[in-house]
Amino acid sequence: MEKKFITGVVVLWVSFVANATNFYVSFSGDDANSGLDWTNTKKTIQAAVNATVPGDTVWVTNGIYILTGEITVTNKISIRSVNGSGVTVVDGGGITRCFNLSAACTVSDLTIRNGCASGHGGGIYCANNLPVITDCVIISNRAGNGASGVSAPGEGGNGTSGQTGFDGGGMYQGVASNCTFISNRAGYGGPGGSAGDGGSGGNGGKGGNGGGFFGDNVYACAFTGNFSGDGGCGGDAPSSNVGAGGNGGSGGGIFGSIAIGCTFTDNQAGNGGCAGVIDPSTRYSTSGNGGGFGGDGGG
Fold first, then answer.
1. By CB distance 3.0 to 4.6 Å, which of 81, 156, 159, 197 could disulfide with 109?
2. Residue-wise DSSP of 141-188
3. Model confidence over 215-227: pLDDT tens digits?
4. Coil, helix or strand for 71?
5. Buried-exposed string 58-92: b where 16+ CB fall within 10 A, e elsewhere
């Protein structure tokens, strides 16, 4: 009985692999195409992803793929470039996150750049630690800034505090292997709201953590020139009750991660925010708050 069960599992696995489908993406394609061969390619990565079932692979050929919305993956699939990260680029254009991954998928051999999120993970957001990113260059992405506090200019009004900046400028959660993280930034803390006569200014929000990567595990990755978020400035007030500056975020390179075989160069923790101004006409201010910890790694 045991032997029969094992044989059945092997047969099911072989059948699953044999039934896997390749989909192909190129600039000369059309999303109305089947995507099943190089003469009928899809034009966008998302259209190919939408056609997949678990076990399939999306192959992306050379080019710069500028996104108008994040690529969302909910299946256990692979997305790979044909000729490597040097010639295949996914670009968020400074307006959208590049990838939003919620399944045990893999993304390989791409440059992922200029992603911009309103939350965590400017380049790549992983809903859990199942997605795996390999052999990618992750560059110039940024996580969302914290919202500003609300001002209360009326007599006795108190400004509210700014919100904390978001984490993982380059990548949030998931697993990264043999990737290069360059010039990514976690979110800034939001500034505190200003106060009215006799009121108190709001405090600045703390900067986000993990400029390059925020998560659990990174293997054989290089981190260069990444930044955690600066703290937001405190809110102004006519009296001495100005808001305090927020602390800078920690871990310019990584935060909360186990790094094995990684290198770190010129990563920086966030600066502390300035305190609010007491008299705007003289720009008199009390001291700000502290910077974050760990230029390369923290937490």
1. 81
2. -BPPPPPPPPPB-STT--PPPPPPPPS-SSEESSEEES-EEES-BPPP
3. 989 999 999 999 9
4. strand
5. bbbbeeebebeebbebeebbbbbbeebbeebbbbb
